[in-house]
Write a structure and sequence with these properties.
about 525 residues, mainly alpha, about 0% strand
Length: about 525
């Protein structure tokens, strides 16, 4: 690999890390932002939701535009938009402008990963593509994992949430300078087709409606939230818009290049690759719950929980690099089978074996290596097989499905945790009975307001209530009950992640059979 390609890869890796970091980094300052702008927690969550929506909207469109107008040009535009958006976020005097700036920022960050991956697939030697894609995918995964911890560190060091975004400005400037030097524009055939503005409009509104409807789902009452009029209305609207999009794209004339790759979607191998991409997003989403597991189940203080997240982050980086090398030597199918088996092993170890921190570090390392392998090279290589000049739009569509998986899965996972806490009173009663402690002792020991139940409280509130109990034997019994129900909730989360990993393994084997036909 020559100096120019190495320089371009470095620029892309930093760009991908910066863009992927920004959604995780803000979680550390969410409470600070809520107080700073004097908004409710519900409105505060939109700082993350809106960025996710912007990413989902931008990736397929930027992928298509990069195929038409060149990847260097689009990369420079995306970085500039991200930098301007970051500056606007930091200088926002009110919350509406803050949200609008976050959306602008997401439109800039959304296409960087797609452009980087398609550039590698178009310009790097075939035997070097896997490792390069592994590095880019690894930066994407590591940023998502380290985001909250890095955000907390910046917030502690500066004392101001503004620096979470101002730090992007010099990085963006350096990326523009080095990008101009190292990224060489590929030879592009003159673009004679018109822009598919109708397709872009329908795709944007359809994806926005679908992603927004998914954010309305509640993990604790999933079935109930599925039947709520707001969710049903917006979800059905997204379905209608997607149907309209397909009809519009079918009728697109020869002088207009459609935004949706219908010829690829008709291919069975591409459809299975999209499904695998969504599974990889769901597996990645499970990782964000591991710090909570360390704190709530293993009883590690919150300020130390981030440190024990390090083995998983390191393993994901090793997995991404190793996965890229495996793709170059053994191919994408072999790599995905290995990645799925690693994830299955890790998720299986959590409910069956993990009781200590070192056991958690081992289990999480298996998970990290598994999803690290998935995120980088293999799925992107599979998505761009036989796509000729459509690599950008193929990667954009794949990234959209990965984002959908990352949006759907947390609701499912959080449901296990929320529902487990509704069993606290029942578990307390059973444990007291087994230990021959009179049930009446609980009523006298707990100081709950009239009409309030333990089942209505969150983990921290329940734990704080139990820790105030003076009777040591009763206190230990009730804390043990809480530990058991929390463990059952996390076990449900890890088992569901295991099942998704098994689906990924089955999908990979099915795709292997289709590729041979």
């Amino acid at each position: 690999m020559n100096r120019q390609l190495k320089g371009a890869l470095f620029v892309f890796a930093i760009g991908v890390f910066m863009a992927a970091l920004d959604n995780g980094i803000i979680t550390a300052s969410l409470t600070t932002l809520i107080y700073a702008f004097d908004v409710s927690a519900t409105w505060g969550s939109w700082t993350i939701t809106l960025y996710t929506l912007g990413l989902a909207i931008s990736v397929p469109i930027i992928g298509k535009l990069s195929d038409q107008f060149g990847r260097k040009r689009l990369f420079m535009i995306e970085v500039a938009i991200f930098g301007i958006g970051s500056l606007c976020v930091a200088l926002s005097p009110n919350f509406p402008l803050f949200l609008a700036s976050r959306f602008l920022q997401s439109l800039g960050g959304g296409g960087i990963f797609i452009i980087a991956s398609s550039y590698v697939l178009n310009t790097f030697p075939k035997d070097k593509q896997g490792r390069a894609l592994g590095l880019i995918g690894g930066m994407n995964g590591i940023a998502a994992i380290l985001g909250p911890n890095l955000g907390a560190l910046i917030l502690q060091a500066t004392g101001s949430w503004h620096w979470l975004f101002l730090i992007n400005i010099p990085i963006s400037i350096l990326l523009l300078l080095f990008g101009g030097s190292f990224i060489k524009e590929e030879e592009q055939e003159p673009v004679n087709e018109k822009m598919d503005w109708a397709g872009i409009l329908f795709l944007t509104t359809a994806v926005l409606s679908l992603m927004y409807s998914l954010t309305l789902l509640e993990g604790e009452a999933l079935l109930t939230s599925l039947l709520k009029p707001t969710f049903v209305t917006i979800f059905l609207l997204s379905v209608v818009l997607f149907i309209a999009l397909f009809q519009v794209e079918k009728r697109t004339g020869h002088d207009c290049d459609p935004i949706l790759p219908l010829n690829l979607i008709k291919t069975p191998t591409f459809r299975w690759t999209l499904l695998l991409a969504s599974f990889s997003g769901m597996i990645l989403a499970s990782v964000i719950f591991i710090p909570g597991y360390i704190e709530q189940y293993l009883n590690i203080p919150r300020e130390q929980a981030g440190f024990w997240f390090t083995p998983l982050a390191l393993a994901s980086g090793v997995g991404a690099g190793g996965g890229g090398t495996l793709v170059d030597k053994k191919g994408p199918i072999y790599t995905l089978v290995t990645a799925s088996l690693l994830s299955i092993t890790g998720f299986l170890l959590f409910p069956l074996w993990v009781d200590t921190l070192w056991q958690m570090a081992i289990a999480s390392s298996f998970v990290g290596a598994g999803f690290g392998m998935m995120l980088g090279a293999p799925i992107n290589v599979l998505a761009t097989e036989n796509t000729s000049d459509q690599k950008g739009v193929a990667l954009g569509t794949t990234s959209l499905f990965r984002q959908l998986g990352m949006t759907i899965a947390p609701t499912i996972y959080a449901g296990f945790l929320a529902r487990s806490l509704t069993n606290v009173e029942e578990k307390v009663s059973n444990n007291l009975s087994e230990e021959a402690i009179p049930a009446q002792a609980v009523g006298g020991a707990l100081s709950l307001p009239e009409g309030e139940n333990l089942d209505e409280k969150d983990f921290e509130s329940i734990k704080s209530t139990f820790e105030l109990i003076q009777d040591e034997k009763l206190r230990e019994s009730m804390l043990s009950s809480l530990h058991q129900v929390v463990g059952s909730g996390y076990n449900g989360l890890f088992i569901s992640s295991l099942i998704i990993s098994a689906f990924a393994l089955f999908g990979t084997l099915r795709l292997r059979k289709l590729r041979k036909n």
